[in-house]
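Q: Sequence in, structure out?
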Amino acid sequence: MENTEDIELFNDARERVRKLKRFYSNLGAFVLVNIMLLAINLITSPNTLWFYWVTLIWGIFLAWNAFTVFSGQAIMGKDWEEKKIQEYMKKK
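A: Exactly. Output:
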């Protein structure tokens, strides 16, 4: 029988991977759709640029998504703390 802590760690890891996968899917869609919008904008009305409004608004939501996905891992998470502790211990 597996330890309850191991099961919790596995579930946490699986959830992080799902969030990461969702983020990368959103990022890919963001890039492709905005390239298409740029092309449509330049073909239909090259003198008036409007595609960047969609890019800006969607980019804000994508940035928020990135912050929520990576904040627990890269920005001052447990791994970050351990790396910093090891880093400071090596300096002295």
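The first helix runs from residue 4 to 44.
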